[in-house]
Every structure is written in C-alpha cells, then in structure tokens.
Amino acid sequence: MRPFGKANPTYLLLAAALAVFIASLANTSLRLVRIDRDIAGGLGENLVWTVVQGEIELLRLLDSLDRFEAGAAGPDAVRHRFDLLWSRLAVMREGEVGARLAAIQRIGNSVEGAAGVLTQLEPDIAALAPGDEAGLDRIRARLRALQPSLHEASVWTSQSELDRSVAQSQSRRDVLYEALLYLLGLLLAALLLVGLLIREIRQTRRLSVAARLSEAEAKRNEQRFRDVVEAASDWVWETGPDHRFTFISEKLQDLSGERPQDLLGRTRWELRLPDDADEANWAAHRAALEARQTIRDFVFPHRDVEGRRHFSRIHGKPFYDADGRFLGYRGTGRDITAELEAAQEIADSRQLLRAVIDAVPAVINVKDRELRYVLMNAFEAEVYGIDPDNVIGKSSVEVMGGGFGEKSQELDRQVLATGTDLPFLEREFMDRYGQKRFWWSAKKPLLEEDGTVRYIVTVALDVTQLKATERARNNLSRYFSPNMVEVLAGADESVRRVRSHAAGILFADIIGFSRLISHERPEEAFEVVRDFHARMARIVFRYGGTLDKYIGDGLMASFGTPQPGPLDATHTLQCARAMAQEMADWNAQRTAGGQQRVRVAIGAHYGPVLLGDIGDERRLEFAVLGETVNVASRLEGMTRQFGVPVVVSDELIEAARAEDGLWAPLEGFAAIGPHAVRGMAAPVHLWTMQEPAPP
Fold first, then answer.
1. 8 Å CB contact between 46 and 33
2. CA angle at 100 for the pair 99 and 104, rounded to the nearest 5°
3. Closest Cα partner for 406 from 414, 394, 398, 415?
C-alpha cells in the first residue's frame, strides 16, 4: 500500500475536508456561545416588568389620590406613592434599561414625557393639603393624561422583547442546523475515509507484508475516526443485539460528567430515572427497537453526576453483518436541555405577552392576510360574549355579524392594500347586551421583511362614557358666563398664556343639603339643586362674573376673569349681597308653598390668582388657582361658625372702596375683626352680612 498522505491524493482531499469541517464546527460553536450569552444577558421579562410597574405605580398613585379625597389617606401617603412612581421612571431612564427603552422612540418619548409631567406636578404634590379640591383635581387630571402613553410604552416594550427573543431563538436554531450539516459532512467524510481504507486493505491482501502494513494503517485510521467522533458536539453510541451499550464516545462525559465505561453493558431503560412517568414514550421506543425501526428524536430525561436534570435527544439505526444478521444499533445523542429551556422561555414570554394584552381594558385583535382572527384579547371577547379561543380562524362577519363585521373587513382590506396605518376613527355598534356603544379604533399592519403585510392589528377604545360626558358638558355650557364662552370660542391666545392678576373669588353652597333632601323624592331633590344653580348663575352673569364650576350643590364664581375689569371687587360684593337677597325671596316663596327653607353659605375674597388653561389638545379647561381661591372657600365654610349667610375678607372690602370710593356696596356688612383661617399663617380680618329680610 502506498504511504498515506503522500502517494494518494484522495486521502489528502478527505483530510482537508475533515479539517474544514472541524474548523467550521468550531466556528459554529463559538457563534452558538455568543448567541447563548446574548440570550442570557438580555433584560427580557425584567424590562417588561419594569415598564409595566411604571404604569401600575401610576394607577396606585391615582388610587391614593381618590383615597386622599375620601379622607382615607393623608398627603404623606400620596407623596410616598408619587415618589415610588418617580423611582420607577428613574429606573426606566437610567442604565441599561434606560438605554434599551430610549432606543425605541415611542417608548422613550412616553417615558420622557411622563418624567416632564411629574416634574411639573412635584410642587403641587408637595403643597397638597386636605380640602384642596382644586389642586387635587388638577393633579388627578394631569396623571390620568399619562395613562395612555405609559400603557402604550408597556405594550411596545412587551412586543419589542418578544420580537428580540424570537429573533435570538431563530438565530440559535439556524446555527444548530448549520452545525448539524457540518457534522453530517464530517461523518460522511469519515465514512468515505473508512471505505477507502477497506478498499486498500482488500487490494493488499495478496501480499503479506502489505497486509501487515494495511492492518497497522487500519488501526491508525480507526483511532483517527474515534478522535473525530470525540471532537463532535454530539456523542456516538452503539448497542448490541440485546440493546445493551457496547460503545459510548467520551463526549458524553464532557457534557454530563457520566463515564461511558459505567454505562457499558446496560440497556437504556435500565438507566431510566425513577421519577420519569412517561410510560407511553418508553413503550413506543422499545416497540421501535423490537421492530428494527430507525430511531428519530427520542427524548428522555437523565441526571448528570451532580444530580442536575438534563434532557437528551437520540437518533439511531439498526446495522447488520454481511449475511443480514441483526447486530444492534448505532447512533448519536445530543443534550437539548438549553434548547428546551430556550423554548420554554419563548413560551413564557408569549404567555406574559398574552396576559398583558388580556389585562388591557381595550379591544386588541390580530388578523392574518385572509382577514381571519389569529388573536383576540379577553376584553374584546367579554364585549362580544364569546370564547377568544373559538374565534381563531374565523372572519369578522362570522363573529360580529353582517353590519359591523363587513365594515371591519372593509377597513382591514384598506390596511392590507396600502400597508399603512389606519388612524383612529369613531365607530358605533351594539354590544352583547344590546346596548349602543362607541369605539375609537385604529388599525396597524405588521410587515414582513419585504414590506408585505403579514398581520393586521386592531386597537379600539370604548369611548361611550366619554361621549356621554361630552353631551352632558354641552348641555351645561349654557350655564357658563357669556364672556368666558366668547373668549374660549374665539381661541384667544391670552387664555392659553398663564398669567396672574387680582380677582374676586366667590363660593356659594347649600347648607345641610343632605338633611334637606332626606325627606324629598330624588326628582324633587335634583329640582332644588337645579333651581339653586339657575338662580345663582343668573346673578353671577348679571354682575359680569365667570361661573368657574359647579361643585355638587354649590358653585365657584370669579370676577375679573378671564380679563380684569375696573369694578371686579365691587361686583363681587354686589353678587354676594344679591345672592343672599335672592335666597331670602326664594325662601319666602317656598315657605308660602309649604316647602322647607334653603339656607345658603357664601364666602368671598379678593387677591392675586393664577389663570390659564390646563389639559391637552383633546380637552382643555380654564383654571383659576392660588391662595385667594383657597381663602374664599374657607370663608364660605366659616359662615356656619358665625351663623350668617355671607362672610367676606377685609381685602375684598378695601378693594371695593378703592374702585369707586362709594360706600353703597358695603351696606349690610359689618366688621367682626381678625379671625384664624385654616391654611393662613396670620389672622384674616372678616366682615359678615346677616340674612336679608324677605320682601
């Protein structure tokens, strides 16, 4: 036989092929290690948990505000919840979490926007005190406006992490498939090498010397083959006709610490774990062996030498001698524990995403290119009264009927045809109880890499209550002052500009309203409130005031808003006196008709206030803020202390005197000296007015 590697170029080619395959396997293994390191180092669920916790802390802060308003919590509890929300946003803006979130523009913008709002609210939170209804409403409105953006950040974070996990898992599978191809090439080259060796041995049998040389060469090549087997990422095994192990490569010890020599002579089911209860799996495996069938993808658990649980997948096929006698099985085995764990992580991520989607109080569904459901969240299923699993594969028409379902399909086709978002639009439909509801819905395509639409995502918000609220506000708009309506209708930029000037503030409230209506029917109780509001509003408008808001059975009015006037303090006093007189006249009518008297409490103050609109571009509200407002509210409450219908401050009296120098506005008012007012460091000089006599 000619010397190996010198006279036979075929051997050189095979050796080169083996070297290429080994190098390729090593490179593929390094790539797999990098991918596993990326998967292990990913933030994953922690990133989603961090963003969702930010939204939860916002809801908890809103709940603490509600409890604070009800008197069930103090301002410290609100500040504590505010600090917790701040800490959540800080985590979302700093370190690796902040970098990951900032890389997604929509999430980064939502987080930075929320941080900006909290920065603006921090002084209001610090100054929040019991009874500060205006400050409480302002804080609550700003916080509720954050909910959609933080919620959107949660949904986008979940989707981003899911996409990242899927991409990493796909990369890992691709590398594993590539490694398998290299291994198959390696085995093929080895088999070709063995075949060439056998051919050489047969050709040299005629010469004894050549036979001895061939025998030595065969031994060397056998060791070479074993070396290649040991270098592979899988282990190689062989069993005899009784299915007992006759050979196991040393690679098994590298993977699990188990020594091959300890397993030789034993069957695979003799090594079965005591807690492996999958009888069907083992029964099918033994039946395949008895039938001499090829074994593929037999998965079973085992433990390494340290007692850790692993899962292996084996492949094998029977082999025979030249006469066709069964000699046993040969095959390969692979530890797939990491693969199963990665698959479980993906399943857990999908489950988490589904839980998040089901927790969203809005309609969320996904349809394929045939416009059939592939996902429907629990909120939508509840609206339609169906099982979300039963709609998979069905169309909108099959689920919702012809009218609404056909319109949904028409909109889906638009997204499918254009590949672009369908902006929010309002739609009307009937729910499972036959009630009319209104959706504010939008559709978005999920695209393939080539730009074609793969799925269509629909998100819809229930705006039924919002529309009802808008109708109620439109009905109440007739009670607001004409000057305010004109300014707002004209989109006067001076309203949007925050400014400060002196103004008169007046609060009026029915005393003992709960006791008053305790013996009245609901219709009569509401009639009392409506009549009271109507009478007081007419007087406010008569003196050029602005009716800022109704507060239950009371109201707040301002004089000198939105623009100051030359007689704002005078008009405030005149309005307070006229209100007291109006109540005296009304009570005379009610008494004559056998009805109960209605007592009123009126408090008024004059001083600097902050004016401007609050809210966002979808909903704005003109607000009057400041200590002057708080003092006026306190004075209204002090009428009960002095047993009078009207209490005003000395600042209001002096401002009215300075406006025209007349004493007429002071008729009926009497100074009662300085008194402590809650929230004020120094006593306030007060004036009161007794209840006017009826006509």
1. no
2. 110
3. 398
Confidence of residue 602 (pLDDT cuts 50, 70, 90): very high
Tens of pLDDT, residue by residue over 63-118, are 888 888 888 888 888 888 888 888 888 777 777 777 777 777 777 777 878 888 88
d(CA 42, CA 30): 18
Q: Dump the DSSP string for 31-76.
A: HHHHHHHHHHH--THHHHHHHHHHHHHHHHHHHHHHHHHTTSS-HH
Q: Which residue has the tokens 């492996």?
A: 276
Q: Shortest CA distance to 127 belongs to which of 86, 82, 70?
A: 82
- Residue type, position 384, single letter: Y
In whole angstroms, give the CA distance from residue 346 to residue 317.
32
Please enumerate in sequence order all residues whose Cβ is within 8 A of that of 629, keeping only pairs 6 or more positions apart, or say none. 134, 505, 556, 609
State the average pLDDT over residues 370-393: 84
Q: What is the chain's Cα-based Rg? A: 41
Give CA–CA dist 297/304, Å, rounded.
20
Q: Name the one residue in this structure whose structure tokens are 């658990």.
A: 301
As a whole number of angstroms, the distance between CA 121 and CA 138 comes to: 9
> Tens digit of pLDDT for each residue in 250-263?
777 776 777 888 88
Half-sphere exposure of 57 (CA within 13 A, CB side): 24
| DSSP symbol at 8 | -
